[in-house]
Design a protein that fits this description.
alpha/beta; Ergot_Alk_Oxidoreductase; two-stranded parallel sheet; 38% helix; 7-stranded parallel beta sheet
Length: 299
C-alpha cells in the first residue's frame, strides 16, 4: 500500500531537484511534472539542458558559495543527487548546509545500498549521510541498489562478443531508475515528511548474477551471449583501454567487487510500499533496450 493512498491532496510545494538532468533526476522531473508543485532545477548551466519549459532553472556553482543560498530561496523540499566524483562529499554537504540555512523543510538524498562498503562511492554516501543526520531538518535517505541502466555500457561489448568483468558468480538486485524516481516523488509529496528522519532500501524484484544476465540476453536476442570472467586487475586494464579514465575505471571495478561479494543482492518490498506498484523487472528493461545489445544504438 503506498503511503500516500489515503492522504489528502498535497499543498503546492516548491521542490528543487539537484541533479535534474541525471538518470534519476530526469525521471523524477518527468513524473512530478503533472503534480501540483513548482519545480526548480539546480544546475551549473541553466538553459543548457533539455528540461521541460515548465521547470524553472537556477544556477548552482560550488566554487561560488553565494550561489547556493540564492538557488535555494523559497524552496520547501530538496531532492539531492550528485554524480560520482572526488568532490561529491564536499559538494553535497555544502548544498545540505545551504538548504538547512535557507529553511528547506525536507531533504531527500539519493544514496546507495552498500554502506558501509569502503569502496567509492559507497564510502562517500556514508560520510554525506552521517553529516545530514546531524542537521536539524526533515530528511529521507533513499538507498537504491545498482541501476539497471549500468548495463547500458555493456551494450557494445555484448554486440561485439567481448562482454565481461570481475563480478564472478556474485548476485545483485538491480533496480530501474524509474522506480527510484517514483519512490522519490512519493516521499517529496508526503505532507508529514518534514518530521521524518528515515532511510529506505530500494531494490528490484530479484537478484541476478552477470552470467544469468548473459543467459537472459541470449534468450531475448536469440543468440549466445557470454560473460567473460576477468580478474579485478584485468578488468581495470580493459576498462582503461576502452577509454575510461583511471578514476571511473576504479569506480567500475569497485562496483564489480561489490557484485562479486553479493553485497548488493538485498531483497525488499519498499518500492511497492511507497508507490503501490511492484518494481519493474530486469527482463522488461533488457527488452526495452535490446537495440543497445544488438549494436544498433549508443548508450
Amino acid at each position: 500500500m503506498p503511503i500516500l493512498q489515503n492522504a489528502p491532496a498535497a499543498s503546492r510545494f516548491n521542490i528543487a531537484v539537484a541533479g535534474a538532468t541525471g538518470r534519476v533526476g530526469s525521471a523524477l522531473v518527468a513524473c512530478l511534472a503533472t503534480e501540483l508543485v513548482d519545480l526548480i532545477a539546480l544546475t551549473r548551466t541553466p538553459g543548457a539542458g533539455s528540461l521541460p519549459a515548465s521547470v524553472a532553472q537556477r544556477a548552482v556553482d560550488f566554487d561560488v558559495s553565494a550561489s547556493l543560498p540564492a538557488a535555494l530561496e523559497g524552496v520547501d523540499r530538496l531532492f539531492l543527487a550528485h554524480g560520482s566524483s572526488p568532490r561529491q562529499v564536499e559538494n553535497e554537504i555544502a548544498l545540505i548546509d545551504a538548504a538547512v540555512a535557507a529553511g528547506v523543510g525536507h531533504i531527500v538524498k539519493l544514496s546507495a545500498i552498500g554502506i558501509p562498503l569502503q569502496l567509492h562511492p559507497f564510502d562517500w554516501h556514508e560520510r554525506i549521510e552521517a553529516h545530514l543526520a546531524t542537521c536539524d531538518v526533515g530528511y529521507t535517505m533513499l538507498r537504491p541498489t545498482t541501476f539497471m541502466s549500468v548495463l547500458a555500457r555493456s551494450g557494445k561489448p555484448v554486440a561485439n562478443g567481448n562482454w565481461g568483468g570481475a563480478a564472478g558468480e556474485g548476485k545483485v538486485n538491480l533496480i530501474d531508475v524509474r522506480d527510484v524516481a517514483d519512490a522519490a516523488k512519493t516521499v517529496l509529496l508526503e505532507e508529514a515528511s518534514t518530521t521524518w528522519q528515515r532511510a529506505f532500501h530500494l531494490t528490484g524484484t530479484r537478484a541476478w548474477s552477470m552470467p544469468e544476465v548473459a543467459a537472459e540476453l541470449s534468450r531475448l536476442l536469440g543468440r549466445t551471449v557470454t560473460y567473460r570472467q576477468r580478474s579485478f586487475a584485468e578488468q581495470r586494464e580493459w576498462l582503461i583501454a576502452s577509454g575510461l579514465t583511471e578514476f571511473m575505471a576504479g569506480v567500475a571495478v569497485g562496483l564489480d567487487r561489490a557484485f562479486y561479494q553479493s553485497a548488493l543482492r538485498e531483497d525488499t518490498s519498499t518500492i511497492e510500499f511507497l508507490t503501490g506498484h511492484t518494481p519493474r523487472t530486469l527482463t522488461d528493461w533488457l527488452s526495452e533496450n535490446l537495440s543497445l545489445f544488438r549494436g544498433e544504438a549508443v548508450a
